[in-house]
Amino acid sequence: MSFAHYVEITQAAERGKMDAIFFQDSLAANQSSAIGRRDRKRAQYPRCVIIEPLMLLPALAMVTRNIGLIATATTTYDQPYMVARHFASIDHISGGRAGWNLVTTQNEESAGNFGLDHHVAHAERYDRAAEFYDVVVGLWTAGRGCLHSRQGEGVYYDVDKVRLLNHTGRHFKVRGPLNVARSPQGRPVIAQAGSSDVGASSPARPPRSSSPRNSRLPSRRPFATTSRRERRNTDARATT
Ligand SMILES: Cc1cc2nc3c(=O)[nH]c(=O)nc-3n(C[C@H](O)[C@H](O)[C@H](O)COP(=O)(O)O)c2cc1C
After folding, report:
1. Under CATH, which number does the domain 3-193 receive?
2. How does the average pLDDT of the chain come out, rounded?
3. Which of 47, 99, 219, 240 shows the greatest Cβ crowding within 10 Å of its Cβ?
4. What's the average model confidence in pLDDT over 136-145?
5. Would you tell me how many other CB atoms lie within 10 Å of the CB of residue 19?
6. What is the residue extent of each domain of the chain?
């Protein structure tokens, strides 16, 4: 693994006219527990050689021009204010090409790196994800129309117009506003691929028309697996 390899595949994808490239992520080395037990059978080839994708995107933005750049970030072990700043910043750096793959984290071993003995339960992860999504999008959109720039001095919030998010929910309390100016897309593209019933119907699942008008990324297509399953369920109901 080397950064040069990431550059090579991203540039190849761009040459091939791909809309976007996406980088998965996990917050633990696979089979961490087995590594701890020196269980060579279970911990065979534990993958540890990835570059953290949020770090990767700005670097890749510098060596590409058009391709969308999507990084994975978790709603279970991160904070919405940080995720909102990161993707707004990457959107600025890339000229409106940033995308967030919203995950609730698949790898159970992650818990051990964030002060927990067990992975957060599935329903709880999605409950947190829904609120997380609302806070991030709220922070991104609250900055609309309330910035002004002074010649040669920088960009400022218009104190008379700026709206604080003042979010208080079950999982988060976030005042705002975001200290990153509104990004080129305003709302960077969000992808979410949970396929369980709660995952597929999660409020954290962005609406199908969520790609902003000035995005260089395409509109999100319906998740094929879910659509197939929905069709199967509908068919099953129709035949009973
Ligand atoms: C294309 C694709 C990419 C995914 N990438 C990640 C990832 O990088 N990190 C992760 O923790 N989960 C990833 N997942 C897992 C899902 O986001 C989701 O967490 C998982 O399917 C469990 O949710 P569910 O129970 O609703 O299916 C990915 C799933 C798909 C289909």
Report:
1. 3.20.20.30
2. 83
3. 99
4. 90
5. 15
6. 3-193, 202-240
